[in-house]
Design brief:
By secondary structure, the chain is α/β, with parallel strands linked by helices. It is built from six helices and eleven strands. The termini are far apart. This is tRNA (Adenosine(37)-N6)-threonylcarbamoyltransferase complex dimerization subunit type 1 TsaB.
Protein backbone atom coordinates (compact mmCIF):
# COMPACT_ATOMS: atom_id res chain seq x y z
CA UNK A 1 0.00 0.00 0.00
CA UNK A 2 1.15 3.51 -0.79
CA UNK A 3 -1.43 6.18 -0.07
CA UNK A 4 -1.07 9.74 -1.34
CA UNK A 5 -3.12 12.00 0.96
CA UNK A 6 -3.94 15.65 0.32
CA UNK A 7 -6.26 18.34 1.61
CA UNK A 8 -7.04 21.91 0.50
CA UNK A 9 -10.25 22.50 2.48
CA UNK A 10 -8.54 24.87 4.95
CA UNK A 11 -5.85 27.53 4.39
CA UNK A 12 -3.31 24.69 4.65
CA UNK A 13 -2.08 22.98 1.49
CA UNK A 14 -1.08 19.64 2.95
CA UNK A 15 0.24 16.41 1.38
CA UNK A 16 1.53 13.13 2.83
CA UNK A 17 2.58 9.61 1.81
CA UNK A 18 1.64 6.56 3.89
CA UNK A 19 3.21 3.16 3.16
CA UNK A 20 0.66 1.06 5.06
CA UNK A 21 2.61 1.27 8.30
CA UNK A 22 3.15 4.99 8.83
CA UNK A 23 3.67 8.35 7.13
CA UNK A 24 6.97 8.39 5.26
CA UNK A 25 6.89 11.98 3.94
CA UNK A 26 4.72 15.05 4.40
CA UNK A 27 4.45 18.73 3.57
CA UNK A 28 2.17 21.51 4.84
CA UNK A 29 2.04 25.17 3.85
CA UNK A 30 -0.54 27.72 4.99
CA UNK A 31 -1.66 30.10 2.24
CA UNK A 32 -5.40 30.45 1.65
CA UNK A 33 -4.96 32.10 -1.77
CA UNK A 34 -2.46 29.75 -3.45
CA UNK A 35 -3.90 26.24 -3.23
CA UNK A 36 -3.68 25.67 -6.99
CA UNK A 37 -0.15 27.02 -7.15
CA UNK A 38 1.26 25.10 -4.19
CA UNK A 39 -0.40 21.68 -4.37
CA UNK A 40 1.44 20.01 -7.26
CA UNK A 41 4.90 21.17 -6.12
CA UNK A 42 4.07 19.82 -2.65
CA UNK A 43 3.18 16.43 -4.15
CA UNK A 44 6.46 16.42 -6.09
CA UNK A 45 8.31 17.32 -2.90
CA UNK A 46 6.92 14.49 -0.76
CA UNK A 47 7.50 11.94 -3.53
CA UNK A 48 11.11 13.13 -3.85
CA UNK A 49 11.58 13.01 -0.08
CA UNK A 50 10.37 9.40 -0.08
CA UNK A 51 12.47 8.52 -3.14
CA UNK A 52 9.40 7.36 -5.06
CA UNK A 53 7.62 8.06 -8.33
CA UNK A 54 3.94 8.86 -8.69
CA UNK A 55 3.25 5.51 -10.37
CA UNK A 56 4.10 3.76 -7.07
CA UNK A 57 0.94 5.21 -5.49
CA UNK A 58 -1.81 2.61 -5.01
CA UNK A 59 -4.53 4.84 -3.55
CA UNK A 60 -5.48 8.50 -3.10
CA UNK A 61 -6.93 10.01 0.07
CA UNK A 62 -8.47 13.47 -0.18
CA UNK A 63 -10.11 15.78 2.33
CA UNK A 64 -13.70 16.43 1.25
CA UNK A 65 -14.30 19.40 3.52
CA UNK A 66 -16.39 21.13 4.54
CA UNK A 67 -14.51 24.06 3.10
CA UNK A 68 -14.68 27.03 0.73
CA UNK A 69 -15.63 26.15 -2.85
CA UNK A 70 -12.47 27.38 -4.59
CA UNK A 71 -9.88 25.81 -2.30
CA UNK A 72 -11.75 22.56 -1.81
CA UNK A 73 -12.19 21.81 -5.50
CA UNK A 74 -8.42 22.15 -6.12
CA UNK A 75 -7.69 19.12 -3.96
CA UNK A 76 -10.69 17.12 -5.15
CA UNK A 77 -10.00 17.63 -8.85
CA UNK A 78 -6.30 16.82 -8.36
CA UNK A 79 -7.18 13.61 -6.50
CA UNK A 80 -9.70 12.56 -9.15
CA UNK A 81 -7.24 13.26 -11.97
CA UNK A 82 -4.45 11.26 -10.31
CA UNK A 83 -6.86 8.44 -9.58
CA UNK A 84 -7.89 8.22 -13.23
CA UNK A 85 -4.29 8.45 -14.48
CA UNK A 86 -3.04 5.78 -12.09
CA UNK A 87 -6.10 3.54 -12.11
CA UNK A 88 -6.09 3.92 -8.31
CA UNK A 89 -9.07 4.25 -5.96
CA UNK A 90 -9.81 7.69 -4.53
CA UNK A 91 -11.03 7.76 -0.92
CA UNK A 92 -12.76 10.74 0.67
CA UNK A 93 -12.24 11.70 4.32
CA UNK A 94 -14.07 14.50 6.11
CA UNK A 95 -11.55 17.24 6.87
CA UNK A 96 -13.04 17.71 10.35
CA UNK A 97 -12.45 14.00 11.01
CA UNK A 98 -8.78 14.47 10.16
CA UNK A 99 -8.50 17.28 12.69
CA UNK A 100 -10.29 15.22 15.32
CA UNK A 101 -7.94 12.30 14.72
CA UNK A 102 -4.88 14.55 15.05
CA UNK A 103 -6.25 16.05 18.29
CA UNK A 104 -6.24 12.57 19.89
CA UNK A 105 -8.67 13.53 22.67
CA UNK A 106 -10.43 10.95 24.80
CA UNK A 107 -13.71 12.59 25.81
CA UNK A 108 -16.35 14.61 23.95
CA UNK A 109 -15.05 17.62 22.06
CA UNK A 110 -15.72 19.90 19.09
CA UNK A 111 -13.85 20.56 15.85
CA UNK A 112 -14.39 23.92 14.17
CA UNK A 113 -12.67 25.39 11.10
CA UNK A 114 -12.95 28.93 9.76
CA UNK A 115 -15.81 29.24 7.26
CA UNK A 116 -15.31 33.00 6.82
CA UNK A 117 -18.36 35.35 6.89
CA UNK A 118 -18.00 35.16 10.69
CA UNK A 119 -19.06 31.49 10.59
CA UNK A 120 -17.45 28.13 11.35
CA UNK A 121 -17.69 24.64 9.91
CA UNK A 122 -18.08 22.35 12.90
CA UNK A 123 -19.05 18.97 14.32
CA UNK A 124 -19.10 17.22 17.69
CA UNK A 125 -17.06 14.10 18.49
CA UNK A 126 -17.35 11.42 21.15
CA UNK A 127 -13.62 10.70 20.75
CA UNK A 128 -10.90 11.21 18.15
CA UNK A 129 -12.41 8.56 15.83
CA UNK A 130 -16.15 8.99 16.37
CA UNK A 131 -18.15 11.92 14.98
CA UNK A 132 -21.63 12.21 16.53
CA UNK A 133 -23.11 15.08 14.47
CA UNK A 134 -23.10 15.88 10.77
CA UNK A 135 -20.80 18.73 9.67
CA UNK A 136 -22.61 22.07 9.79
CA UNK A 137 -21.95 25.76 9.18
CA UNK A 138 -23.10 28.29 11.77
CA UNK A 139 -22.21 31.52 13.54
CA UNK A 140 -20.22 30.76 16.71
CA UNK A 141 -22.66 32.67 18.89
CA UNK A 142 -25.56 30.56 17.62
CA UNK A 143 -23.96 27.29 18.75
CA UNK A 144 -22.31 28.51 21.95
CA UNK A 145 -24.80 26.65 24.15
CA UNK A 146 -24.37 23.42 22.18
CA UNK A 147 -20.59 23.42 22.61
CA UNK A 148 -20.47 24.94 26.10
CA UNK A 149 -17.90 23.28 28.35
CA UNK A 150 -16.39 21.17 25.59
CA UNK A 151 -12.76 21.28 24.48
CA UNK A 152 -12.40 22.44 20.89
CA UNK A 153 -9.75 22.25 18.18
CA UNK A 154 -9.38 23.91 14.80
CA UNK A 155 -8.75 27.41 13.46
CA UNK A 156 -12.44 28.29 13.76
CA UNK A 157 -12.45 27.52 17.47
CA UNK A 158 -9.22 29.47 18.01
CA UNK A 159 -10.68 32.44 16.13
CA UNK A 160 -13.74 32.75 18.40
CA UNK A 161 -12.64 32.24 22.02
CA UNK A 162 -15.92 33.61 23.41
CA UNK A 163 -17.81 30.65 21.91
CA UNK A 164 -14.93 28.17 22.32
CA UNK A 165 -13.10 29.15 25.53
CA UNK A 166 -11.32 25.78 25.72
CA UNK A 167 -9.90 25.90 22.18
CA UNK A 168 -6.39 24.71 21.38
CA UNK A 169 -4.25 23.35 18.55
CA UNK A 170 -4.22 21.80 15.99
CA UNK A 171 -5.57 24.67 13.88
CA UNK A 172 -5.47 23.30 10.34
CA UNK A 173 -5.76 19.73 9.18
CA UNK A 174 -2.65 17.75 8.20
CA UNK A 175 -2.56 15.22 5.37
CA UNK A 176 -0.47 13.02 7.66
CA UNK A 177 -3.46 12.67 10.00
CA UNK A 178 -5.80 12.05 7.06
CA UNK A 179 -3.47 9.34 5.75
CA UNK A 180 -3.17 7.61 9.14
CA UNK A 181 -6.93 7.69 9.67
CA UNK A 182 -7.66 6.37 6.18
CA UNK A 183 -5.03 3.62 6.45
CA UNK A 184 -6.46 2.54 9.81
CA UNK A 185 -10.00 2.36 8.42
CA UNK A 186 -8.96 0.53 5.25
CA UNK A 187 -6.93 -2.00 7.24
CA UNK A 188 -10.04 -2.66 9.35
CA UNK A 189 -12.07 -3.32 6.21
CA UNK A 190 -14.11 -0.12 6.43
CA UNK A 191 -15.38 1.56 3.28
CA UNK A 192 -14.45 5.22 2.92
CA UNK A 193 -16.89 7.63 1.25
CA UNK A 194 -16.61 8.70 -2.36
CA UNK A 195 -14.71 11.96 -2.86
CA UNK A 196 -17.79 14.20 -2.98
CA UNK A 197 -17.31 17.74 -1.65
CA UNK A 198 -19.00 18.98 1.52
CA UNK A 199 -19.65 22.58 0.48
CA UNK A 200 -22.59 23.22 2.91
CA UNK A 201 -23.31 26.57 1.27
CA UNK A 202 -23.20 28.28 -2.10
CA UNK A 203 -19.90 29.67 -3.49
CA UNK A 204 -19.05 33.31 -2.79
CA UNK A 205 -18.94 34.15 -6.51
CA UNK A 206 -22.44 34.22 -8.00
CA UNK A 207 -24.14 35.70 -11.03
CA UNK A 208 -25.69 39.08 -10.03
CA UNK A 209 -29.45 39.33 -9.84
CA UNK A 210 -31.19 40.83 -12.87
CA UNK A 211 -28.12 40.02 -14.96
CA UNK A 212 -28.84 40.74 -18.62
CA UNK A 213 -27.35 38.48 -21.27
CA UNK A 214 -26.44 40.43 -24.38
CA UNK A 215 -26.27 38.44 -27.59
CA UNK A 216 -25.58 39.74 -31.09
CA UNK A 217 -28.59 40.06 -33.39
Amino acid sequence: MLLLALDTATPAVTVALHDGRDVIASSSQVDARRHGELLLPAIDRVLAEAGLKLDAVTGIVVGIGPGPYTGLRVGLMTAETFGLALGAPVHGVCTLDGLAYAADLEGPFVVATDARRKEVYWARYADSRTRVTDPAVDRPGDIAEQVKGLPAVGAGALLYPDAFPEAHEPGNVSAAALARLAAEKLAAGEELPAPRPLYLRRPDAQVPKNYKVVTPK
